[in-house]
Design a protein that fits this description.
Length: 145
């Protein structure tokens, strides 16, 4: 198939030493299908497999947090999450796509979305709920950044 506006879209590509079957990427998104402890559910696996079966070359899993949270996103905050994330990656590969992962931290919105250690680039904020007594973020140090 050839698209006159994007003639290379369906051509193979490379990411490092990996070959991608095409240049279509399913970006990471918050599906909120995870368990409350941020572990993978069968719904996460099915959604990832479905995205890969649709023809994408790369499928990014949901946003994956790096700190423990109690919000229904995926977590990679410790080794207990590896089996579930591996199952998602395998489901993606089974459909011929590469699995990707976007690591994230909600920064100053941590308290708002269900976590601890509210951090950000600065203590400056514009959201009205911070004015109402919510915890202001701790400014990250240069070493932490």
């Amino acid at each position: 198939m050839k698209n006159k506006f994007y003639p290379h879209l369906f051509q193979k590509g490379k990411v490092g030493n990996l070959t991608v079957k095409n240049r279509i990427i399913r970006n990471s998104m918050g599906t909120y299908l995870a368990n409350p402890d941020c572990s993978v559910t069968i719904h996460n696996v099915k959604a990832a497999a479905e995205a890969a079966s649709g023809g994408c070359g790369i499928v990014f899993m949901d946003n994956v947090v790096i700190k423990y949270m109690y919000h229904m996103v995926l977590s990679a905050s410790n080794d207990t999450y590896i089996p579930g994330l591996s199952m998602m990656a395998e489901a993606i590969r089974d459909h011929g796509a590469l699995a990707g992962m976007q690591l994230s931290h909600p920064g100053r919105d941590t308290g708002f979305v269900g976590g601890t250690e509210v951090v950000s680039a600065s203590r400056i904020t514009f959201e009205p709920w911070y004015e109402a007594g919510a915890e202001l973020p701790r400014e990250l140090t240069i070493e932490e950044i």
